[in-house]
Amino acid sequence: MHKLEIPEEIIMQFGRSKALCVLTGAGISLASGVPTFSGAGKISYFRNYTSDYLASSAAWRDYPEIVIEFYDELRNRIYKARPSISHQTLHGWEQRRFAYPLKFFLLTLNFDGLHHLMGSSDIIELQGTIWQLRCTFCQTIVDLVPFRQLPKPDTCDICQGELRPNILFKDELIPRAIYRQAVIAIEQSDTFMAIGVSGKNPYIHQLVKIARRRCRNLIEVNPQITPLSEYFDVLIRSRAEEVLPQFYWDYLSEENNFFWI
């Protein structure tokens, strides 16, 4: 099969990076079998309610029992998931498997825990994690055992309050402290890469705009054009698992449709 060589200018530009910030979205976990809330692999309905509705604070207010069941079902699907080659590649980048030391920052919109399972550390989880519950009254965090199907508590041990998934509902604001961590990571980076990010979250637009101002090299990896594409210098129209393992080699295959904008 004919291989498409990455332009030398792109290789050299990426190779000069001293600090890399990667933002991952649901697309990176598709190869692991994790369902999404949009696009390919989407969960459309649960008990006759749309997934978009069940991922909202309105659903939690009106039908908390169904929301809990929905996230329990989602957690049951994630139990069997394992990191993909994309997760492995990012972990390798974090481990400084380069010719020189590199600062590495990992931001993720995913709450599946696969980056942690792979061994990545210091992850900024922008939307929380399905492996935690949070008391709606005293805000105590209850840790579950990741990828272990063990009984989970129904109420808070401290105040007996109701426990909700420690995941950001789609109409909730990202906590200021988490947002600030993401901004600091971007501001310290010279290269910014978004992988499998749909771009539907309003605050993600703000983070990418910051990256546009502060980073000299912006790369998007996504099979589809997204609302964020206009901010990136380089677009790679391919699935993450097809591209990331090749990224430091001298080629990308023709079907990856690599191009400048």
What would you say this structure looks like, in words?
- With 261 residues, this protein is of the alpha/beta class.
- Helices cover 30% and strands 22% of the residues.
- α7 packs parallel to α8 (202-214).
- Strands 6-5-2-10-11-12-14 form a 7-stranded mixed β-sheet, with helices on one face.
- The chain contains 9 helices and 14 strands.
- The chain has 2 domains: 3-34 and 83-127 and 174-260, TPP-binding domain (Rossmann fold, 3-Layer(aba) Sandwich); 45-81 and 133-167, SIR2/SIRT2 'Small Domain' (2-Layer Sandwich), CATH 3.30.1600.
- It is elongated and about 60 Å long.
- It has helices spanning 8-15, 51-54, 57-62, 64-79, 85-94, 114-118, 176-187, 202-214, 240-243, and strands at residues 3-5, 19-24, 45-46, 49-50, 103-108, 123-125, 128-135, 141-143, 163-167, 191-195, 217-221, 234-236, 251-253, 258-260.
- The longest helix has 16 residues, at 64-79.
Examine the coordinates and then state which fold CATH places here, giving the name of the CATH topology of the largest domain.
Rossmann fold
The largest pleated sheet is described as: 7 strands, mixed
Q: Could you name the CATH class of the largest domain? A: Alpha Beta
Mean pLDDT: 86
Shape estimate = elongated
Unreliable stretches (pLDDT < 50, length at least 5) are: 1-5, 249-256
Tell me how many strands there are.
14
Indicate the CATH architecture of the largest domain: 3-Layer(aba) Sandwich
Order of helices and strands: EHEEEHHHHEHEEEEHEHEEHEE
Name the beta content range: 15-25%
Strands of the largest sheet, in order across it?
A: 6-5-2-10-11-12-14
How many distinct helices? Answer: 9
* Rg, Cα atoms, Å: 19 Å
* Helical proportion, percent range: 25-40%
